[in-house]
Design brief:
single chain; mainly alpha; peptidoglycan synthesis
Amino acid sequence: MASNVRRAAKAATLIMAANIISKFLGFLREMVIAREFGAGLGSDAYFMAQSIPMLFFTSIGSALATTFIPLYTEYKSKNGREDADRFANQIMNLVLIVSVVLTVAGVLFSPLLVRIIAPGFTGEKLSLTVGLSRTLFPLIIFVGLANVATGILQSNESFTAPALVGIPYNIIIIALTIILADRIGIYGLAIASVLATVSQYYIQVPSMRRLGYHHRYSMDFSHPGIKRLGLMIVPVLMGVAVNQLNTFVDRMLASGLPEGSVSALNYANRLNGFVLGTFVTSVATVVYPSLSNLGAKEEMESFKDSVATSLNMIFLIVLPVTAGTILLRTEAVRLLFERGAFDARATGMTSVALLFYSIGMAGAAAREILSRAFYSLKDTRTPMYNGMYAVALNIILNIVLVRFMGLAGLALATSISVIFTSFTLGWRLRNKIGGINGRLILKEGIKIAISTAVMAVAVYFFKNFIYSYIPGVSLTAQIINLALTVFVGAIVYGICTIIFKVREVTRLFSFLYRRLHINNV
């Protein structure tokens, strides 16, 4: 048991480190995009065009990763590695065929799709969006293949290559955007995105070969796992797709707002997604195979404890980051993006959207863990219906709030819907397995919330002090001010969690103490 915990901790640390590097490069990527294209016609067209294939490739990719791992693990455990690899090979070929068909259809019907999703676009903006969407559709092929490859590797406890895929992805986009922007404009970014996505699959191929997996092209789809995955993936696909529809609907309504609104929503969403992509995904990725194993063995007490621990770990990270983002949103956006074509107006729009997106950060994080818990129990319908409720609520709130709040209303609607549906999903899981250690989650959550409140007060007063003590808008002054403020906030928060004896922090210190004690002996 102890060795499993240590192995999981090492894997989580590796994934988190790789994600931090990838997210740093992702920020650099967004900075380059913002500098080159700002928040205007070209960037609006690109982000809207991107949302069309994104609805397909993110949905298919996430659904594959979610349903493939439990089945592959089951076949490997019961029938051996050879049978599991045969299943994986047939899935890979099926994904290739389906994604090629979707790509061809997407290219052919791009004009119709763009008119549906961007009713506010006309003239040059409409034509540019159609051209960009056609350029971006081949993304679907390699995203599908990359997700199956990730599933194979993670099922065999090989986390390194999947964790690293974001690094070359971001480097390629950064380099090619800088090279091509002056030559072919926003199309350079689209081409860079496609080539970067291709790298996400091929960087994992050497690791699959080292495991002994060699892909073979064939039209054999006779493995019984194909039918099982087909039955499982439909509700998961619908559940994931409806989540993507939130962003989709936001951008659709933003197309009728002032120019730059679609871009501002995107930049804010990317900043907000840093926490989910770096910390939440790291925890969920490592916990998911363990939850699947516990669910298969029907070890429900351990399953409940694992869910509760995962939620506490998520809240320990997400709550202070939420408070920090709300308090430092303008400073962060200005530091990261305000240069080149990205002006003060774009900073203001992005900061407003970021404020209201941040409110739902904890809800989105909790929903990620809770959905994985259901999938581990091979229940794919509950998260699907929950996602459908989220989209319905988001659409209703979007229509109401956009009239009164504009851009801010779209972000707030997303946050309200995700908070509400995360609570309902948690309630459904509690009823399904007879509790999720709710008292423990509430007890530790209160400690974390109090620690976050103390940190927020410290950050508020220190920010006012340091920004008056070191005035100026130079890059150096901005970096020093923001870094010092974040550092002070982190120290205050860390001290508070120790004083209040937050369970996960206490466990961490106990683990470190034992390791140091053993090493000294």
